[in-house]
Write a structure and sequence with these properties.
7-stranded parallel beta sheet; globular; 16 helices; Rossmann fold; 401 residues; 5-stranded parallel beta sheet; alpha/beta
Length: 401
């Protein structure tokens, strides 16, 4: 089968699909991953075919963030998805950010399709919208808020969908009408996160499943400088904010160093899109590293609670200090805290060195956080989200035969 995976956004929005793509390729499929050119090396390094989608998420951050220019970005993405699909595919696997456009491309190709989501976006009474949501509004309120959130997504994509369907010679169809069609057809969507964090909501329709994480393809051993730092003293605390905090690297670096000194801990700072830097003893600044190799050796992990980093920390059995910024990050931060694997979240806007130092001390010294993280890690180890995706592709192939 020729499989096209489409993913857009930050590194954490894309990297899990490298591991998924590798597993599908190992199962005998021809796999292409369409994403931004920033990730070409990562994709091709895994042996997958790379197809370019437009947009520079990191550049968008520098101009005020993707949300500010979301409509422009979606328009570019619609044109790009049509282009990367032109070589053809038997199955389209669509991420959360590309599905509202990818549905229409699959229709034009006559190809099977499925969702491969990193967040639970389907409305449910069990919790409110993951992106931009608040705490529970009750079962009725949660479902209503979830439907309203999907309406916002459809309005954001309205012009891009109209342009895309015209380009593909398809009759006009709104996003809401397409969603109703998918419900009728019980369109399948796999959700690549662990039931250790979010169980499948009981009120979801058939076809929606929570299968466990898709892990990024391994990137190799840790650099020698990191190994030497780890060997030189007690386990350090990792601090990184991923794609968040652009332009605030110096401030965040100073804050992190002060917090580590106050807490009496060594630290590893990951530069990320913020460009964190530190000039201090017992603090090492690093670039992009394999979290699967690094996090099990940390005393605690301070992170922005993006879906991928939150899952990697939990998988490592390490305590979390979540500092959520936006989008789905507050949701994952609350889930980590709810299962006991994290201290209470510190909102990024309220982050201070004193608050961070106190949270680090609690995460490191209170053994229950590591114990709960280890329990969740054991559960995650029993899940195989990639295998579930391979099974789904096989079912789609049989249905198309």
């Amino acid at each position: 089968m020729r499989i096209l995976i489409t993913a857009a956004g930050s590194h954490g929005d894309v990297a899990p699909y490298t591991g998924l793509g590798v597993r599908l390729a190992e199962a005998g499929h021809e796999v292409a991953l369409a994403t931004h050119d920033n990730y070409r090396t990562m994709v091709e390094g895994c042996g997958l075919e790379f197809r370019p989608l437009p947009g520079d998420p990191q550049g968008g951050q520098g101009r005020g963030g993707m949300l500010r220019r979301a409509k422009e970005f979606v328009g570019e993405l619609g044109r790009g998805i049509a282009e990367v699909a032109e070589p053809g595919a038997d199955v389209l696997l669509l991420s959360t950010s590309t599905a509202p456009l990818g549905w229409h491309v699959a229709e034009a190709l006559g190809a099977a399709s499925a969702g491969v989501y990193l967040q639970p976006v389907e409305p449910t009474g069990e919790f409110g919208p993951v992106v931009g949501g608040t705490r529970s509004l009750g079962r009725w309120g949660n479902r209503a808020a979830g439907r309203a959130a999907l309406g916002v997504v459809d309005r954001l994509h309205r012009d891009a969908v109209a342009e895309l369907r015209a380009r593909l010679d398809l009759p006009p169809l709104s996003g809401a009408a397409m969603r109703r069609r998918l419900v009728r057809e019980q369109w399948p969507a796999l959700h690549g996160f662990s039931t250790a964090l979010v169980r499948r909501p009981a009120d979801w329709r058939p076809g929606l499943e929570v299968v466990g994480n898709w892990w990024p393809a391994p990137t190799g051993e840790l650099p020698s400088a990191v190994e030497e730092f780890l060997a030189a003293g007690p386990a350090p605390v990792f601090i990184g904010f991923g794609s968040m905090g652009a332009g605030q690297g110096e401030r965040l670096g100073r804050l992190a160093v002060e917090a580590l000194r106050t807490a009496g801990r060594r630290g590893i700072l990951q530069a990320g899109w913020a460009g964190l830097t530190a000039d201090a003893d017992d603090v090492l600044t690093v670039g992009r590293l394999d979290h699967a190799a690094l996090f099990p050796r940390m005393a605690a992990v301070v992170h922005h609670a993006g879906a991928g980093t939150a899952a990697a920390t939990l998988r490592a059995g390490a305590p979390s200090v979540p500092v959520p910024v936006t989008a789905d990050q507050p949701f994952w931060a609350r889930r980590l805290t709810a299962i006991g694997a994290a201290v209470a979240p510190i909102p990024f806007a309220g982050l201070t060195a004193d608050r961070l130092a106190a949270a680090i001390r609690l995460a490191v010294t209170e053994p229950s956080h590591r114990e709960h993280a280890a329990t969740a890690a054991d559960r995650m180890a029993k899940e195989d989200g990639a295998a579930r995706a391979v099974d789904l592709v096989a079912r789609l192939a049989r249905a198309a035969a």
